[in-house]
Amino acid sequence: MGADLTLTRTLLQDMVKHPNAGGVLVLGLGCENNGLDGIKEYLKPFNRDNIEFFNCSIFIWHMFHHFHIKTKGGTIVPP
Prior knowledge:
Elements: H1 3-16, E1 24-28, H2 36-43, E2 51-55, H3 56-66, E3 70-72, E4 75-77
Parallel strand pairs: 1-2
Antiparallel strand pairs: 3-4
């Protein structure tokens, strides 16, 4: 991805550690190149209590798996 990926990641990480941020929720949408793991690793040395992470794609996968939800052409099919 190159410079665009690096610039995007740096911008997001700098916004998370901004001193005026009272609390930060970082949402992961399942991006393979700019995922939460890399951002967490970068922010580890800052050790701030006001940062939370939530990976939406894992939540949705577990929800579909747990409730045995099937899709057909992008539409949820009732059980």
